[in-house]
Design brief:
Elements: E1 4-7, E2 10-13, E3 18-24, E4 32-39, E5 46-52, E6 57-59, E7 67-72, E8 77-82, E9 91-100, E10 106-110, E11 114-119
Parallel strand pairs: 2-11
Antiparallel strand pairs: 1-3, 3-8, 4-5, 4-9, 5-6, 7-8, 9-10, 9-11
Length: about 120
Amino acid sequence: QVQLMESGGGLVQAGGSLRLSCTASRSIGSDNAMGWYRQNPGKQRELVAVINFGGSTTYADSVKGRFTISRDNAKNTVYLQMNNLKPEDTAVYYCKAQLLRKFGGSYDYWGQGSQVTVSS
C-alpha cells in the first residue's frame, strides 16, 4: 500500500499562484508515473498533468504554459506549480501514483484531495 499526502491548496485571486505537493509514504520505484487530476461537483475527474520517473510530462491543453509539474524522486514527491490561475481552475485537486505492474496493468493510488479556489 502507498499513502499519498497532499498539501498546498487554498484560496487565491485570479492571476495568482499556488504550489501543490504530494508525498508518497514509501519509495515507489522507477516504473511509475505521478500526476495531478481535478474534479468539480457533478463532473468527471480530469487529467491536469502527469510526469513519469524519467521526467517526461503531459499537460491538459487548458493548463499548458501556466502549470508546471515536477518531481523529486529521492523524496517520493511530486509538485504542481500553478501560475496565472483562473476562476475555471477552481476544483479539488487529487494526486495520483500509478505503479506499473510487471505483466501489465497498474496499481493506482490517490491522495485525499486539496481544494483550490480562485476568486475573480
